[in-house]
Amino acid sequence: MMMGKQKHRRQYSLWIRPQEKSEVGENLHGMINILATRHNTEAFDPHVTLLSVFEIEDDDLESVEDSLRGVASSSRPFDIVLGSPECGSSFWQCIFLLCPLQRNAELVRLHDAVRRCLVADPKVEVSLANKTYMPHLSLLYSDLVGGERESARGEAEELLKGQAGGDARCGSFQVGEFELYETPMGGTNTTKAWRRVRGYPLRGQGAQV
């Protein structure tokens, strides 16, 4: 009896990144690199996670991408407003800039739209990292504890003040697309296998989805 070919499932996330050549993008990238070096951990591209994490089989990737393009084509560009550095309680949310919900309604609407799209697709297994959406931009991935974590938050605050003339907030950046990243977790705290798959430009002109 011949065995059927085993289907391969991969884990993905949707990201929003500031433009690499923008002032905000370059400042955030530099700050993430500095903090990673100081705390002996991995650096990563600055991003706000739109949705994480979901699994699909390789054969289904194309149809899922078609659905994501549909969401992007009906969504308008918008700005993301970033707050001040805060401490989280997990490795992946050690130090981050929170995106205040009351100032980021368009971001929340886009999250809701892609979530509905993916949850409705039987080919997709959605296992949200956070059941309640808490948009943020991470600055440091680390398992620092207690006072170490608070000290790192203070470092991030000082770096921001140096970039923004004394203001510990990063400001905002414009969103023109969201991106699909393969983000295998595998129970290990590493980003080495993460890779960008594709971007989906926001092309909507009317009301938000």
UniProtKB/TrEMBL annotation:
One of the record's GO molecular function terms: 2',3'-cyclic-nucleotide 3'-phosphodiesterase activity
InterPro entries: Cyclic-nucl_3Pdiesterase, Cyclic_Pdiesterase
Annotated transmembrane regions: none
The keyword NAD is assigned to this record: no
Keyword rRNA-binding attached: no
BP-aspect Gene Ontology terms: cyclic nucleotide metabolic process
Keywords: Ligase
PANTHER family: 2',3'-CYCLIC-NUCLEOTIDE 3'-PHOSPHODIESTERASE (PTHR28141)
Name under which the protein is recorded: RNA ligase/cyclic nucleotide phosphodiesterase
Organism of provenance: Chloropicon roscoffensis
Taxonomic lineage: Eukaryota, Viridiplantae, Chlorophyta, Chloropicophyceae, Chloropicales
